[in-house]
Design goal:
By secondary structure, this protein is α/β, with parallel strands linked by helices. It is built from twelve helices and 13 strands. It folds into two domains: about 180 residues, Rossmann fold (3-Layer(aba) Sandwich); about 120 residues, UDP-galactose 4-epimerase, domain 1 (Alpha-Beta Complex). The structure holds NADP nicotinamide-adenine-dinucleotide phosphate. The site of NADP nicotinamide-adenine-dinucleotide phosphate has 22 residues, from loops.
Length: about 325
């Protein structure tokens, strides 16, 4: 198939592009060309999708059998994508499980669960989904919506329960034997999917008519607590340190840095069912164990010098010292 990936050099889409090539597809990527690492054999179509007229004209000048939109975030983006790919044989829209919010009526969350997003990101993705589904029901537009949960790879830092995108120095903390903060008791439930496993879903959904007009959660079926995750991550890092629980309300009150994802997702029990995806796309069988996946991320971070020195910041040490004083007070009551 002749496939266009809007994005293509990002966290998830890098793996999608690689697998598309391996499976013999003809691959084009549309992006601004700001990130290295495009494999040989991929045609780069340079541009910024926010320059809507240029983006749509560039896509209309080509003929694609399928398109995968990785960077569509709101209804305006969605309408632009529909104009850009109005003749395409199959469009995959990347949404998010953040469309559900965190107040669940049942677990694991299935695709028919009500959407109650709590962030602008989730609200805008849900609105973009509606644009695509309207086009499907009105004009028979061949779209499939994929809602990833946490999907990580070597282009991201090694995750922890607190948001570490801005500063992944926690790895250096562990290496130096310093304790780390977890949110609450660290036992919120979560699922972690490796990018190469995500690519199995994207590449094998392409052209499957039974997936047109359908929405799919994309995650591993297995789940675990963040405490378990941190133990595995520390095994990969090579040192075990103490985890010190701090309530979310305290983390927010003291202004702990970059709490974003922790507040809106990682402090909650978030379990989504991938059963529908595994039924309709049987090739989607996640196979990279979490420990191996984290090892690949750590290896990339070390190689690229992406692990900051934890001695440059002391907020976590101060917070742990304060939390321990609270613990002592409680013991004295
Ligand atoms: N990873 C997760 O846990 C997770 C969970 C839920 C949903 N998602 C969804 O997954 C998608 C992210 O996919 P990803 O990880 O592959 O992407 P990513 O890491 O965010 O990478 C973005 C890609 O898009 C390109 N790009 C960014 N802005 C652009 C623009 N204005 N015009 C053209 N190209 C642009 C980038 O290249 P240039 O910078 O060179 O342009 C790059 O190729 C998002 O839709 C996100 O909502 C991810």
């Amino acid at each position: 198939m002749r496939v266009c990936v809007v994005g293509g050099t990002g966290n998830i889409s890098t793996s999608i592009v690689r697998l598309l090539l391996e499976e013999g597809h003809e691959v084009c990527v549309y992006n601004r060309g700001q990130r290295p690492g495009l494999p040989d054999g991929v045609r780069h179509l340079p541009g910024d999708r926010q320059e809507r007229a240029d983006f749509e004209a560039a896509m209309q000048a080509e003929r694609f059998d399928a398109a995968i939109d990785m960077i569509c975030y709101n209804p305006d983006d969605a309408r632009s994508t529909l104009r850009a790919f109005r003749d395409v044989g199959h469009l995959i829209f990347t949404s998010t499980v953040c469309t559900y919010g965190v107040e669940y009526d049942w677990l694991p969350v299935t695709e028919d669960h009500p959407l109650r997003p709590i962030t602008p990101y989730g609200t805008n993705k849900a609105a973009a989904e509606r644009v695509f589904l309207e086009a499907h029901y009105r004009d028979d537009f061949p779209v499939t919506i994929i809602r990833p949960s946490t999907t990580f790879g070597p282009r991201w830092p090694m995750l922890r329960q607190l948001d570490c995108n801005a500063n992944p120095s926690w790895i250096d903390r562990v290496r130096k034997g310093k304790p780390i903060v977890v949110c609450g008791d660290g036992r919120a439930l979560h699922q972690w999917l490796y990018v190469d496993d995500a690519a199995l879903a994207y590449v094998n959904v392409l052209g499957r008519e039974r997936c047109f007009g359908r929405t799919y959660n994309m995650t591993r079926p297995e789940f675990g607590t963040w405490e378990e995750y941190h133990h595995i991550a520390m095994r990969v890092i090579g040192r075990e340190v103490e985890m010190v629980g701090v309530p979310l309300s305290t983390l927010l009150a003291v202004g702990a840095p970059a709490l974003g994802t922790c507040t809106s997702i990682f402090s909650h029990n978030t379990i989504y069912s991938p059963a529908r995806l595994m039924r309709d796309v049987p090739e989607f069988r996640p196979r990279v164990p979490l420990e191996d996946a984290l090892g690949r991320v750590l290896e990339a971070m070390d190689r690229e010098g992406r692990i900051p020195d934890s001695d440059q910041s002391d907020w976590e040490d101060r917070l742990i010292a304060a939390q321990r004083r609270v613990g002592e007070l409680e013991l004295g009551l």
